[in-house]
């Protein structure tokens, strides 16, 4: 018998301790505990919350922003690594699922970074590491493209869970790829971006994208967006005073929880820091699909054919030497691990 989970979700709207990895990880652990103490089974954190967004890309030239890029590289983390392990331990200790955005450094390099979402189970397992497929606009100065190797829906104690970062939630094909894997709970992580065009309402754009995914897929979406602290503004205005006005526009951050009918549940946060909570009953995803189940009966898969390349991107592929090849005067024989030992 189908019996879908019911749980409380939490979404964090806050600023990191800018480019201070250890302090931000400590903040994350405190917020995990707070969300769990309030009964949440899932807590979602903003995009690249560990530990900061490259606002300099928007207020400086690439040359002027280059020293800041170096600081970001030095504060970035590896996944897996000690920082994410500390967060995973907090998730296990408080029995809560966690989705968090981090600046991830390529383990084989020092200056290739990814905008990464890490999904952690309530027993502390790292379920997935999703690297943002395409950095948006000025972000291309900072992050490399991700791949689809972890464009995956994870089975968790609160149901099938997927996640996308910021502008990816505008990518219809990426969203469909998650829905087609049975996603019922979606995390959309964002950063506050007041430097968008003057007629662009960032908070409304975030809400609209989340509502579209919910209504089309008949799922719940937990939106978590960062804020811009005074610390961040002062860091940018130290050399570029004009950044004060650019980073002060209101309606640039939206955090909230949206149901399968596309409507916001409870009271969202606009610009202010805090944690949003909502009770979620995944059984509410069933009846709306009788009308529109776009990954099932309400589609024509004989007409539409979406293919997703899940091969991980690597800088190089090594091919081992063939068996019994004489190499530098030595006979080299490599065992085939697929073959059983023979007498």
Automatic annotation (TrEMBL):
Residues 7-282 form the CN hydrolase domain. Pfam families: CN_hydrolase. The active site is at 47 (proton acceptor). CDD domains: nitrilases_CHs (cd07564). PROSITE patterns: CN_HYDROLASE, NITRIL_CHT_1. One of its GO terms (molecular function) is nitrilase activity. PANTHER family: CN HYDROLASE DOMAIN-CONTAINING PROTEIN (PTHR46044:SF2), NITRILASE (PTHR46044). Belongs to the carbon-nitrogen hydrolase superfamily. Nitrilase family. This is Aliphatic nitrilase.
